[in-house]
Design goal:
alpha+beta; two-stranded antiparallel sheet; Glycine--tRNA ligase; Gly-tRNA_synthase/POLG2; glycine-tRNA ligase activity
Length: 112
């Protein structure tokens, strides 16, 4: 038996197909779109819901050692500290001395 090699997928063709079929659309498309942001169309919503349900069933419902939790993103700072999220977190800013505008340092580093 000969083994078939899967064809390479062109991302632009895949995105175009997904748009034509109603899976995704550029976010805020009527205002020119927003780079790297997508909204789910009717079929995309259903696909995403099915994937989430399958994941939840496999990872939470079918295991005895797991329980579900849907917690708030906004939490007391002590929660983030106790979980270790603050220890290694830094978000340095760079400020222009003449106009006083600020930018994230990692964004400026990517533009050089």
């Amino acid at each position: 038996m000969t083994e078939q090699v899967p064809a390479k997928v062109d991302m632009e063709k895949l995105v175009s197909l997904c748009q034509r079929r109603g899976f995704i659309f550029p976010s805020s498309e009527i205002y020119g779109g927003l780079s790297s942001c997508w909204d789910y169309g009717p079929l995309g919503v259903e696909l995403k819901r099915n994937i989430k349900q399958a994941w939840w069933r496999a990872v939470v419902q079918e295991r005895d050692d797991m329980v579900g939790l849907d917690a708030s993103i906004l939490m007391h700072p002590q929660t983030w500290e106790a979980s270790g999220h603050l220890k290694g977190f830094t978000d340095p800013l760079v400020e222009c001395k003449s106009c006083h505008l600020r930018w994230r340092a990692d964004e400026l580093a990517g533009n050089s």
